[in-house]
Amino acid sequence: MLPVIIVFLLYPFASSLRAEDKQPFSHALFDQVLSTYVNAQGQVDYMGLTQDRKNLDAYIDSLRATSPNSSPQRFKNAQHALAYWINAYNATVLRGVIDAYPITSVKDIKLFNGFFNRMDWVIGGEAMTLDHLENQIIRPQFKDPRIHFVVNCGAESCPELEARAFDGETLNERLDAATHNFANNDKHFYLKDDKLYLSKILDWYGQDFETWFPSDRNNPDTHPTLINYFLPYVSSETTQRLISPSIKIEFSEYNWALNDQKRP
User: Does residue 56 lie in a domain region?
Assistant: First the structure.
């Protein structure tokens, strides 16, 4: 009779685990972190977050246990999976910064490249670096150049970190909004006379905007170009200037200073 009793006692526990594994993955904890510690300019109150890190730590723990790779049934579609990976990248950067804080740049963490290329994080049971997360999962699996305007590396020259987590239901609209904001922000996209000054990100990843140019969008040239990708996101006046054959592109220097909120 003893084996029967053991099975009976374990059955409800096993049943509850299966039910939990079917629940959609929640980003609520990370949403609380962002809404509390990120301002309208995308700067982070790292000092405050360092002193109140329980929600971020709990969210990082949830990432360690579950991902679209380890538990695909918890992600409705590819949009929900991509939202997860973007949040995972941004949350992991925040965790890496507060673990090393106070610092003035992500370059101060693990001799800079170590932070992105040699520091392992466990996500969905897999050990991976931030470089692996961006360049082996987010970019090649989803092939959407707009991700470059929402993943945030903790530097001033990064596109601004948003004060809310991403979710699959609104991801496409928010990626479009982020691209529009980027193309209309002089910090990243600045047109003066016949020169277009662009973020260094577009130098590093410019090929993404040509290779993954949307197939359903009209393209002015036979071969998609970096400039053509942004035409739907700028004014008609700017469009006319951008399609001029005399336009020249220059890439701005990247500012690696920490995107920390300024204090008196």
Answer: yes
